[in-house]
Prior knowledge:
Beta-Lactamase, 7-stranded antiparallel sheet
Amino acid sequence: MDRGFNTTISNAFLTDAGISQLDLLQLLPMAACIYNASGKMIFYNEAAARLWGRNPTLRQANDIYDAALPCYTAEDLYLSHDAAMLSALIKEGAPCDDWQVVMERPDKSKVLLKGTLLPLKDKNGVTTAVLHCFQEITVTTAALQEIDEHIARYTHLNEELKRSEERYHKMIEEVEDYAILMLDKSGIIQNWNKGAEKIKGYLESEIVGKHFSIFYLQEDRARHLPERLITEARETGKAVQEGWRVRKNGSRFWGSIVITALHDAEQHVIGFSKVTRDLTEKKLAEDKIRQYANELEFQNKELEQFAYAAAHDMKEPLRKIQFYNNYIFDNSGLLLPEKAREYLMRSISAASRMRGLIDDLLTYSQASSFSQEMVETDLNEVIREVISSHHDIIEKNNVIIEADQFPVMRVIPFQFAQLFDNLLGNALKYRHPERQPHITIRAEKTAEPPDVRNTDFADLCYYRFSIADNGIGFEPDYADKLFELFQRLHSQPGITGSGIGLAICKKIVLNHHGVIKAYGNPGQGARFDIYIPCE
Length: 535
């Protein structure tokens, strides 16, 4: 043992503590050692050396004690031979009477130690050193075996933990599609993986130690966006955001970021994890799709305006054609040869159909407009007016119509009147020639969603309106095509139509954020269901 150094250094501490001789401790059968106020060992006796199984070297007083032997508590907690516990004891100035560990000697044998740590104070009550007295506690072979098992289990678990940590850190370091980094409590970058280098362009040596706001645009830093994200993560546990970020070379990328708060055992925030993904290609594709959609919407509006203007302008020359044809027929029709009279009748009929087509085109253009205001409307009055407008054909064909009580809703009155008029008109037009026409108009509030794949139609409440008839029906495969422009239900002689009516119905329903579906079978009638979301 380096006695000269021990005595010189120790006497300075022991004199302040009121102890004059180290020989007294050397004569003790109990193991003893002394630590200075910094928690560093400055003296030990022969009994301590025997228990340790070695004579550690004592160097300068500020050096760490070099005889760090593995020690374990009864709960398998490994205690490294550092000064943390001693420093706390010195600071508190209170003795520790229940110190007990299992120590592993250099020859791998184990010994159970129990002892006391006693603060040594000067005349002013300041702790200047700590006296540590300890001795071996005899245990049975079975107890030692149990201790060995505990230590072996701890060692295995510790090795597994180290391997798991190594795999985790390796995985984080090798990930290239995500920038994964750690921030301290103030947002200073602590580590850097390959993904961060690939996405942001900085080497680890260039970025660690800098604030993560370096990746944000100048305008975002001016409005304190990085600080607000950190605050949100601290207060709520997580902050999620997408926006433009800046690479080292000054180029921009669209980043999707998640900042997650990290907590200690007492749930204090000790830092943050930050994961960033480069979604620039996705962002540019979405912007392009949005641009195309806006351009398409603009073109559709122009086309609708053109169709309206063209149809409106055609009405005047057509009106003159009808006027002149009717004038000739009324005043000279009987004088014309039979063939000429037949051609004149065909011309009048063609002009009448043209007038109907133009009117339908104008109605379709009006149905495409969103400028009309929705108002509270009693749909019962709308249904009554629609039925009244078809009074003659209803009475002539002895048609039975059953109508439910309808709700008051915010709708575009003119368009809803057009909707029910077209659907009732179809039910009357395509009645079965061999049975009495029977039409039912139903209304109900339901939570059952329509049978469509439109995920945007996700309201929890709907009004479902149905118009069903017992007419000639149609092929089920034709149900979706019915709502396309110029598609007609039937081409039988005597049944006329422009093929625009159901397209108008679909436009009106879409204007009200709803869905319309058609169901039918040949000879068994047809049913049209309309779903309008509740407010």
